[in-house]
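Per-record layout

source: Promicromonospora iranensis
name: Adenylosuccinate synthetase
length: 430
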Amino acid sequence: MPGVVLVGAQWGDEGKGKATDLLGSRVDYVVKFNGGNNAGHTVVIDDEKYALHLLPSGILSPGVVPVIANGVVVDIEVLFQELDALIERGVDVSRLLVSGSAHIIAPYHRTIDKVTERFLGKRRIGTTGRGIGPSYADKINRVGIRMWDLFDEKILRAKIEGSLDQKNHLLVKVYNRRAITVDETLDELLQYADRLRPMVTDTAVELDKAIQAGKTVLFEAGQATMLDIDHGTYPFVTSSSATAGGAVTGSGVGPTRIDSVIGVIKAYTTRVGEGPFPTELFDDKGEFLRKTGGEYGVTTGRARRTGWYDAVIARYATRINGLTDIVLTKLDVLTGMEKVPVCVAYDVDGVRYDEMPTDQTAFHHAKPIYEELDGWWEDISKARAFEDLPPNAQAYVKTLEEMSGTRISAIGVGPKRDEIIPVHDLIHPR
């Protein structure tokens, strides 16, 4: 049975939660392999809306084993807030597994994140202030705390001391903040140890056994391609590998286990935070997309920046991830427009770019070159087959497929769980 990777193909908020939920009844494990609680998924089931931040979307699918793998950084307080909220709504969360090698977001990581952003001023990155970047920085600097450490108080204290020794100098002498004590950090983290213990395991071994047993494993990315630390619009990116390659390093599963890679992409484009955005709209059409599409962050509540579909980015995401399929979401939001522009290339100081320029300066100055496609007025939320779509909507999808470089295998026509058109089977062993 296949290993399937699901990634965002733009700057995030593409609807990965809905795509994961669509696949949920056909997979045995759903694995979150990167990021933390700095991104959110919204899943609508029977008119009930669930907003998830740290938990894999598969936790809402009965029988599926949700896994937080080693590539994730975990704010334990947030983890239990989400779990308790689901328990209150009758969701069974007992199957959750957490990697013992996953790094922990300590209270001082959140503090460092917030004060650093304020210190940067106009040069700020636009982080969520949740301590994601500082936690990953400690991981790379080899002073991080992992889940396993919670179960050995002596080791945990030593690691906190080592990390705070440097950070307190920074907080006090640079940012004019109070020093954080070892004891307060130790006490906050240890309060979760007993409840965590049954969940924590070597998830890489668990996943290998599942694949060997013929189970289907879905690897779910947090964030998205254009926010990847290596392949995104650096430095306005996240701190982890949000592309398909991150599924391998972030879970401990070898690359030969991956059979297909699904990219989720909106029928238009959005972005949260700072950084270049070639197709961004600043007029009433941008506001229409924002209001009609409900473009406000699941995690932060911030209004998302909106723009037209960018085929250059779609081709880039297809190449970087090796996409085999695309799930196109929110096609319904475009209903009622006479013309729908699509960015087919960039103009950078008079030079045409059909592929994304990796030079930061060039991309910052990129101007979109548009082709206009005919719009449609018909309500498409009831469409359940491609042929049910109006001719102009069909033409729009076919054009995006041709421009994007891989097949569109499912089309979202509304926010509800069943408001989706299957075009091709998303689970297919190679």
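summary: Residues 268 and 309 are 4 Å apart (CA to CA). The chain is about 30% helix and 20% strand.
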